[in-house]
Amino acid sequence: MGYNWRMPIRARAHVYAMQPYRPGKTPEQLMQSLGLSELIKLSANENPLGASPHAKEAIVNALEAIHRYPDGACSVLRDALSDFYGLPPDHFAFGNGSDELIHLFGVAYLKPGDALMMGQPSFVRYIASAQLNQATLQAIPLTPDFRHDLEAMADAITECTKLVYIANPNNPTGTMVGPGAIDRFMEKVPDHVVVVFDEAYYEFLENPPDTLRYVREGRPNVVVLRTFSKIQGLASLRIGYGLAAPEMIEVLQKTRQPFNANGIAQAGAQASMVEQWLPGDPRTRTLQYLYLVRNPHPPDARDLLLAVPEAGRYGLIHARYHPTLQRYRSAFGFYDIFLIDAAGGRILYTVLKEVDFGMRLGAEPYHGTGLARAFRRAMALGEPEAYVMEDYSPYAASYFAPAAFLAAPIWRAGVKTGVLAIQISVAEVNRVMTGERLWRQQGLGESGQSYAVGPDGTLRS
Questions:
Q1: Within a 10 A sphere around the Cβ of 49, how many other Cβ atoms?
Q2: So what's the pLDDT on residue 4?
Q3: Fewer CB within 10 Å of terminal CB in the chain, N or C?
Q4: C-beta of residue 115 within 8 angstroms of C-beta of residue 137
Q5: Mean pLDDT, all residues of the chain
Q6: What is the tens place of the pLDDT at every residue in 199-249?
Q7: What is the average per-residue pLDDT within 104-132?
Q8: Using one digit for the tens of pLDDT, what is the confidence trace for 29-78?
Q9: What is the 3-state secondary structure (H, E, C) of 92-112?
């Protein structure tokens, strides 16, 4: 009996109903087909400035090890992101672009009869994830102003709904849902639903919502996706990452390929993290150049700089009020004092002039810090005499030293115009707890010791 070579080899039936992803033409192809000598391509949302010099240099250097398999755990990049976000290393998963992570979530969490929910229109790979895993697609129309209708999405959740994707800002509409709408939505989400905030364009927002707080709070059903393709300009390297509880990260580790993030991509991404710490706003760059880079005093004595004529009106105001705040800090033993703008959360003034000077507390790497939390809580106060205190946690701008913060709103004619914040170091707490190290005079004898312990069981002194 001979073989029937014409008999078709059939894939699973539902695969034939899927639409393959069809990328647009390259700039070279378009110029050739249209007879153009130059063009500006906008369709793929690529960074027109390209990757940073740090990333390009690291990519070239990484070619020396191209014959080796990459670090399957992305150890160096994982540690860099851990420092940047202030989250433990086991909260990160990596993919060949964040769209691979979308694929992995479908593989891990969807089965026939389950449902995947998304806004319509939104990123097309959510649709593919549902189809590939034979799940029902719950496509909820956007609002009339092209935002995710989170209220309608919450109402549409059923026992079958397992994954909800919220692209914020949304692709392709470029619209954002704010923190209030997100909070109301999350209050209604049942525990069996995994909510994925796809934030490929997060860094382009002036005041993005803090979705990472759900991860920091330990919520087990929340994932935040980010990528190096957009703001870092590494689209061709294909590397993205997810932030979630360790239990969910472990699921992704079990479903991913062994070396899904290549070594060249890891090197470029890790090097591009340098840019994340630098100010993007030209005003902040100017202030940091004048008060930090060009400051003639060493880093621990930058507060000695008083007059900066090139700073214009800001320099005149700084020269007038800085000595008073400098003396206040010294007299009370505070580590630093901040004046923060109410509207944008920008640090307008600090005594010490560390690297947070001029930065926005609404953006990483400061969004999740104790200072940012103290600022947000102070802005929520309604009484002129009220203040808040934020407990000790590592603070990036102070070399990750533990820092606590006191904060109170600044009022003018009944309106909150800013926040005054005070940073307290562990050194000051140690001074108080040891009685200036005069143990015997404090009644502790030769070997007595006192400790301050926080509600989480960790030492504060």
A1: 8
A2: 65
A3: N
A4: yes
A5: 91
A6: 999 988 877 888 999 999 999 999 999 999 998 999 999 999 999 999 999
A7: 96
A8: 989 998 988 888 887 888 888 898 989 999 999 999 999 999 999 999 99
A9: EEEECCHHHHHHHHHHHHCCC
pLDDT bucket at 108, cuts 50 / 70 / 90:
very high
Place of tokens 């472990």: 250
- For residue 253, give both structure tokens: 């580790």
At 225, list the tokens. 């996706």
Q: Residue 269 has which token pair? A: 């991404």
**CA-closest candidate to residue 416, choices 366, 359, 378, 372:** 378
Q: Are 395 and 402 in contact (CB under 8 A)?
A: yes
- pTM of model > 0.85: no
Tokens of 81: 């992101």
How many residues belong to the chain?
461
